[in-house]
Amino acid sequence: MTHFSAWNILKNGLNNQKGWERQWRDCEPKTKYDIIIIGGGIHGLATAYYLAQNHKMKNIAVLEKGWLGGGNAGRNTTIIRSNYVQPGNRQFYEHSLKLWENLSHELNYNVMFSQRGHVTLLHSPSAIDAAARRYNIMRLTGSDAEIWSLAKLKKIIPHLNYSANARFPILGAAVQKRAGTARHDAVVWGFARGADQKGVDIIQNCEVTSIERERDQITGLKTTRGLIKVKKVGFSVAGSTTLLWNIAGLGELPIESHKLQAFVTEPLKPLLNHVVVFGVGGTHFYISQSDKGGMVFGGDLDWYKSYAQRGNLPIVQDVAECAVSILPCLGRVRLLRHWSGTCDMSMDGSHFICKTPLKNLYLNAGWNYGGFKAGPGAGWYFADLIANDRPHKVIANHDLNRFDRGINIDERGAGPDPKLHG
Description:
By secondary structure, the protein is an alpha/beta fold. The chain has nine helices and 18 strands.
């Protein structure tokens, strides 16, 4: 496979771009694998890559029912941050951010990671106090964090709505400068290319239709491309987790699937060089500007359970109102399109990377709003779990039994309601 370098770009520019090879193989499924990861999004591909890279595992396949990145990986607003404080989450997301920082070099593929900074607007003295506590925890545990005064915020992002009569008056901001965005399809392609180079079979258009079991162990997967025998299986299918869990005959999960819409406008000249977020008075909004110039933004879930990948108009209105309230200059900008992904919402807003009631089945799910930013970290820790058959200490409490032990990893303090966790 061609190594990307300045020399190869120059050489292929001179030979009419004829020297590039296919980025990954289009594999036919074998009859048996040692490890199968179900789900060809960022998490599934990253898991396969780190199984091969970190643990030198062989005979691995990734099964994807559609095309790579056709699920939530290609349907999000691409925000990356590590401003979490709960035990386990703090270490997990910081590790994931560090993986992001070197990912393009490690994969030899430009994932377009832009550390433009994550700016959370603050609207009251109590919000500033709460943010200071959170961001001090970040600083004490090896991350970067700042609180910006109103004067500094006005100087750096001058076109926000700073009016005293604004619907949501701004008093300052909490900032993580190392945070930012990445190109979602480039991340998928980079991990697919990296996994393929390590010998992983990537099999698209291969949906799991049933699961063969002997007592408490999976022996095979029936797919639309035939029966595949397997020794270990990893579920990494985001909003479809409960469907696959039922196919395995395992009953209920503490997860609900909800639609989360995203939006993009017509391209604009450079306007916003940061990710800007706010949440106050029942609102929830986040926005950044893509490399193509479109304003990419989103807000709350559609407030009912669904596996659909298209949203409804009440959330369109709600998010548009948030956008104009904080950036009035967007009032006449045209909205090009909107879509939705299916979020796997857990009861406390935190994920599961854990073993399951079946000896050779492992679960990666419950990502709420955090799936994209968690991608490299989720793959790293999930691969470690599958390879060693035990959880890393960082994710020791991110299991299905934590609620039985009275453990709630609740970043927002929203209680046991999946709809309230952002």
